[in-house]
Write a structure and sequence with these properties.
A hairpin with a 2-residue loop joins strand 1 and strand 2. By secondary structure, this protein is mainly α. The strands form two sheets. Strands 1-2 form a two-stranded antiparallel sheet. The protein starts with a helix and ends in a 10-residue tail after the last helix.
Length: 106
């Protein structure tokens, strides 16, 4: 991960919120891990993490909405058909943690 990607990630994690307020160290660690190394294990641990309580959006929902990730389901006992890329995850975190709605959502 280059310096600009790291700064973007840290900014997104600082902006992120869930129903308990700021993201806990555990949630931040999960999101950091999947952004740093998107594997089946890190994605499974992070996809359901809420990243914005005002918009009530998870990382997976942000990926679908903002990062051109089209996986909308996973077999219950299977693996993810496609894992998101680092670029997609960083985009989803940056857009998903922004509290201002884009013009098309207003």
């Amino acid at each position: 991960m280059n310096e600009n990607e790291m700064l973007s990630l840290m900014d997104s994690l600082d902006r992120g919120t869930n129903t308990f307020g700021a993201l806990s160290p555990d949630v931040r660690a999960r999101l950091f891990a999947v952004a740093e190394n998107p594997t089946e294990q890190t994605w499974e641990a992070a996809h359901g993490c809420m990243i914005n309580d005002r918009r009530f959006i998870t990382l997976w929902q942000a990926l679908i909405r903002y990062a051109d990730y089209r996986v909308i389901s996973k077999p219950v006992d299977g693996t993810w058909p496609v894992l998101p890329t680092r670029e997609q995850i960083l985009t989803a975190l940056a857009e998903g943690t922004t509290t201002i709605e884009p013009h098309w959502e207003q």
